[in-house]
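User: My notes are a mess, but here's the protein and zinc ion's SMILES. Can you give me a structure?
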Amino acid sequence: MPGFAIGVDLGGTNLRVAVVDDSGKLLEKLTTGTEVGRGRDRVITEMCSDIQRLVGNFRTAGTLYGIGIGMPGIIDMRTGFLHESPNLPGWDNYPVRDDIENRLGTRVVLENDANAAGLGEKWLGAGRDFDDICMFTLGTGVGGGIVLNGRIWHGMTGMAGELGHYTVEPEGRPCGCGNHGCLEQYASATAIVKIAREAATSGNAPELARAIVENPEFSSKIVYQMALQGNEHAREIFRGMGRALGIVVGATINALNLPMFVIGGGVASAWEMFAPAMFEEVKVRSFVYRATAPKQTGQIERDATLITRALLGSDAGLYGAARLPMLLAELAVRAESKERKRA
Ligand SMILES: [Zn+2]
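Assistant: No problem, the inputs look usable. Here's the predicted complex:
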């Protein structure tokens, strides 16, 4: 009988819950808004009722491995506490995992959302033919996920992979994490909007200023469309973003020498606008990259460092979250057979 797991992607705006089977097929997905403003308890109650509904729908479909939940913030993997999450105010230092496990009576695995996205891309996306990948997720913020030997690299307490908070400008823009000049302040959707607004205010970018006035919901997507249409100011914003990203990708290549670096998240759709500047910067900053660059950019070659776009779009985190309890189950089976051999 096949098995399945529930994957949850809990963001500051959307709550998505999906049933995924062990071959990676998405069987059903529920998407609702996260009403963060109505408080933690309300969000957890709604999440649990979505999960229970889906578990009920698939009760006879196979074994339930458990529930995997990707959420923003730094999570202590040993205690299941969320330590800090700017997108989920009021959740700090709360035993999130235990609360949800008690309500559902099923095994729950919590994971940082960018780590979950990295695992998703490794399982079914751009990294599926590699054991080791590093993923950058460029969204509202910038997240990172390092997957080694098919498993998320957690570090000591589960907080590893915070690649969005690499410093790219020592005296740069203040960041929510307390540092100045973090990558997140230059390469996230939020940063692109902020930088575009500043350019508009400076008086040097009249088209951007007009676009801001005309679009009450001015977004990084609009900056991207303007860049596509050839607007030089919009293009410069993406070049700057590419340079900042290239600094960090280069540093990470030097540190880890992995075969694959995946760029995902909503802002990655602007790939053709930032990738040339990113590659230029990576070549300058990373001698490990220069020594291992593929002969043709984007090609899979033996012993080459590939920097490529993610393939699963916004579902990467959902697939990765569902994969978490499956990996735990695989580990348990392996430990059991080892134990049996010994006996
Ligand atoms: Zn930061």
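The chain has a mean pLDDT of 94.
User: Great, I'll file this with my notes.
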